[in-house]
Model the fold of this input.
Amino acid sequence: MTDLDDPADVLGVARFVPGMAQATLRELDGSLNGVEGRSAMWIEFDGGDEPARLNAATAQQLETGISAALDQRLPVVISISTSGTDIEEGMTALHGWGRVASRLTACSGVVPTVMIVDGPAVSGPALLLGVADFTIMTERSSAFVNGPVMVEQFTGIEIDVDELGGAATHARYTGVATMVVADRPAADAAANDLLAYLPLNVDQEPPRWPLFDAADRPCPEAGAQIPESSTGSYDVRKVAAEIADDDSMFEVRDRWAANVVTAFATMDGRPIGIVANQPMVLAGTLDIPASQKAARFVAFCNAFNLPIVTLVDTPGFYPGKDLEWRGMIRHGAQLVYAYARADVARICVILRKSYGGAYIVMDSKTMGNDLCLAWPFSEIAVMGAGQAAAILARRASPEEKAEFEADYAERLLNPYVAAERGFIDAVIDPADTRAEITAALDVLADKRELLVERKHGNSPF
Done:
């Protein structure tokens, strides 16, 4: 561990003020993956027992530490506990926080950024949590732009800190919290574990973990998770765990939008990102939070060179007036955009259902994936047999509808129709899924795409 007591030696700018903040070049704990010799820039708030009021001096310290991390191409971890911008200092403090936000934004897609919240994060500084790639909150922490007093003054509604912006609220309802842990030591450990899957910067590949699980290991238990009934539920995380290296799954944002699972894992020692529909929640349908969660994760994996494995089992988008009025079209397009822009290795495995628009957005062949596999009992169609009968045979008798559904399922609800047309590359035995994916990742290890030159796309945020 090396203390940067004088960041001027790194950047030629102002020193840190002792006792207020400290930047430390910390060696990452390699106990999770056995990869040693990797470092990150850790920036600590030293506000004593009370949360710090953030002024121009502290902002300059943060800006200096973040700039040092950018110059050295190292991940940034910032531990924050603040009661907000210093009111007495006024515009100077606000200007300083604008500078910090600008520097943290400059890190986006260049070096990974992690925020640890161990106390309050109030007002402008709370917005930094949304800029960072990942936010780890302790159980005692909270974060909000406007506190309970302001909420009551403007709305007349009394609300306490935990309900307004407690860690549990952000984990369950807002998605701000990547994870919630018991205390600060647990938060440090979680940050170390998270960074174990990631490269130090955009110019590097993720660190290869020591091999401890055979690449061609059969995984029959993956297919055994699927119930016989097409409407039965199961935990897709168990499927992912069977396919991935043993004990390598690291789920992020597990409490928010639980109808989709986002997790890091390794396969044959190679870190990957996993996106999977979760049939246990909302039958695996896609809604606005799920689309946002998956899109942000796909974009992150693409930025830092992690292959993406997508496990599909969804009957479509969740229907409802409320979702449509809240912008399902716009937010669903975020996932379309993220996958279509991703140029890392992309492998899709259709486990069971893949219907309609959800088939398209879950990294279908149309979206440009590199390999699309399907299990033999998977169903790929515009809609399910019951839905099709309700539209195409709506005037038929119950017996005729039943006959229509049986015929529809036999002719169309199977992966071989899609395979004949080139929309599926192979129909495989579930037990061979791990071997097929690891072999494909080896082939795609040197994948490169020539992208059209442009400043940037207009993402449907």
In short: The radius of gyration is 24 Å.
